[in-house]
Amino acid sequence: MKLNSSNLTSLSTALILGLSVFSAQAEKVVSLEQAITLAQQNDPWLHGSRLKQSAVENRSIASGTLPDPKVSLGIMNLPTDTWDLDQEGMTQLKVGVSQMFPRGDSLEIKQDQLQIESTKFPLLREDRKAKLKSQVSQLWLDAYLAQKTIKLIEDDWSLFEQMAEVAKASYSNVVGKTRQQDVIRAQLEIVQLDDRLTSQKQKLETTIARLNEWLHIYDADRLNESFNFDAQPLEFSVSKELPSIQLNNPTVLKASNYSRNLLAQALANHPAILAIDVKRKASEKGVELAKQQYEPQWGVNASYAYRDNMPSGDSRADLFSVGVTFDLPLFTENRQDKQVAASIADSEAIKTEKLLLTKQMISAVEKELRQLKRLSDRQSIYQKQLLKQTHDQAEASLTAYTNDDGDFAEVVRARIAELNARIAALKIDVDALKTVARINYFFSYSQTNSNAEHKPMHTSHRMNQHLSNQQFGEK
């Protein structure tokens, strides 16, 4: 097989992706950026979308071409008594050709309509990539949360085992205020901790399994090899550090200048919204096409008839015919009028789709912003107060118990409270990043038809007022 430039590009891309995955396999670690890149570059849906775009573009070219002419062959007026070709003067061997012409500008309009429809596919691919980024980010962060929670539990495991041993030894030696219920309580906490650890491992394994869907290498040139699902690793881990995800457009989300109209303008350049605009323009062409049904349809035909010589040997003149046909759209009330009305209704209905999607996006953004604000408030509470206070309480209760002035049950409760606080703080950090990833989907601006005022503003800022001082990401 000869390698052209496109084949070389595909091959190099596959090699780069393969090396990146093999590297990930060797380290068994996948970062958030790697997961997003692999998901976007190996999504079969994107390749299918390119094929569909090519199909529509080819149909557009085909639709602008006149229909094929029709050729007819026939013998006319053949006498049935002798079946001789030269007996009657009317007997002819006729060859004809006819060509029909579409109504009005139907061909041009249909071609323009399909060309417009083909422009929606790049927008749909941009929307798909934005959705993939959001979805993969949330799965990756779920895996990180489970993985980090497992580490937090395992780090405290030895401490709880130590406490159980101390309680058991103190009870056996009748030292201090240790009672049998304290020993049982310590053992119970270890069992419950083991259950929590198992639960988190279950979450990690199921999330990794879901994430594996997007990390499968896909090569469009070797589709059959892409069905070898055993080539991809089933087990891997995510990075140990929590990544930093920033808002794509913090300016429009500032509390000082926030308005729904401003938000709607920012969302107007979203690929999903622009795809509806393309659909609307195509439907307007559909209205124009329906109106062409009022125009007559023309056709021309020509024929040449050969006649045999007379029985006497004298020649007969051959015959040539030419004609024009056309129809008259006179009874339009129940046909053409209704077709135009239906096309207009379809076009108007698409306008409601854009309004509906814009309202849904605005509502979703506002919901996520409110959630992000509350998560920011909770982050502040945990970082400034709860984590420190639970740690101090655990240390104080342990000191009191060591000095025979405290209760063992209080020591266990304090240690559990400290562990729960750290896990809760971690979950808040992860939930904040997941929220930012969901918000960023709505501000995924189209590079196909982007306006200067709608381009994303990549800054290191968060949100104004409530969110400006809160960093979501690495701790």
Automatic annotation (TrEMBL):
Composition-biased stretches (Polar residues): 465-475
Does the record's keyword annotation contain Coiled coil?
yes
Pfam family, any one: OEP
Q: Which family does the entry's similarity section mention?
A: Belongs to the outer membrane factor (OMF) (TC 1.B.17) family.
Q: Which domain of life is it from?
A: Bacteria
Q: Which UniProt keywords apply?
A: Coiled coil, Signal
- Name the SUPFAM superfamilies on file: Outer membrane efflux proteins (OEP)
Where is the signal peptide, in residue numbers?
1-26
Q: Disordered: where is this region? A: 451-475
Q: Which GO terms describe its molecular function?
A: efflux transmembrane transporter activity
Transmembrane domains' residue ranges:
none
Coiled-coil ranges (or none): 409-436
Q: Does the keyword Coiled coil apply?
A: yes
The record's section on InterPro entries has: MdtP/NodT-like, OMP_efflux
Tell me the protein's name: TolC family protein
**What is the organism field in this record?**
Psychrosphaera ytuae
